[in-house]
Amino acid sequence: MGNRRTYGTNREDPVRGYADTAMEFPRLLALLLMVLEWTRPGLPSPLRPICDLRVLNHFIKEARDAEVAMKSCREGCSLSESVTVPQTTVDFEIWEKKNGSEQAQEVQSGLYLLQQALSLLRASVTATALQSHIDNSLRNLLSIHAVLRSLNIQEYTPPASAAELEGTWLVSTATDLLQVHVNFLRGKVHLLLLDAQACQQDVS
Predict the structure, then answer these.
(1) I need a labelling partner for 6 at 20 to 30 A (CA). Which of 29, 151, 163, 173 fits?
(2) SS3 of residue 199 by DSSP
(3) Does pTM top 0.85 for this prediction?
(4) Using CA atoms, how far apart are residues 112 and 157, in angstroms rounded to an integer?
């Protein structure tokens, strides 16, 4: 572990060395337990811990970071054309009347639109710092897709055209797009994972 304190003759301090070993053992044990849990038969993906929402909260934070980076960007950070994005407002009365499959379909279509829009933004911007944030956001969207599949949610088949989707609107600026990204994760994605019985059973 790290830089160990030495005395005169460059010999390691035996007490410090013992302490380092004692601290390292629990970390190794925890890592071993995680590996065994992830490789146990019947678990389709190591991404299932998102059900406790801590991973999703991390994704939301990174989406906010991208939004902040966009607002401070002065050059090479524009969207080349208008893009279709999901509506982020939630009518809870209507949402609660939908079954799990309908809710999942709505979230998956929104994730698909965001992935397409962010990919276009990634190709449009030239600011390196902003590109890095967009790359993180795209990876996080793929991770959420993988989590939904691991929860036995039916795999989403995108339509031939975004115009076929309901509950969408057009944005023409990168700032608006990144704001939609944040709000969609905080809203419908959060609700779906919070309400999913599969999540509750998985962490119980």
Answers:
(1) 29
(2) helix
(3) no
(4) 9
Tell me if 122 sits within 8 A of 168, measured CB to CB: no
Burial class (CB in 10 A: 0-12, 13-18, 19+), 152: exposed
**Residue-wise DSSP of 25-87:** HHHHHHHHHHHHHHHSTT---TTGGGGGSHHHHHHHHHHHHHHHHHHH--SS---SS-EEEE-
In this structure, the number of other CB atoms found within 10 A of the CB of residue 192 comes to 22
* 186 CB-near residues (< 8 Å, 6+ apart): 60
Under DSSP, the state recorded for 13 is P
How far is the C-alpha of 9 from the C-alpha of 128, rounded, in Å? 48
CA atoms of 84 and 105, how far apart (whole Å): 17
For the domain spanning 48-203, the CATH number is 1.20.1250.10
pLDDT value of residue 74? 85
**Mean model confidence pLDDT for the chain:** 76
Structure tokens at 114: 């965001």
| AA letter at 66 | A
Whether the CB-CB separation of 63 and 178 falls below 8 Å is answered with yes
- Give residue 118's region: left, alpha or beta (phi > 0; psi -120 to 50): alpha
Q: What is the pLDDT of residue 166?
A: 73
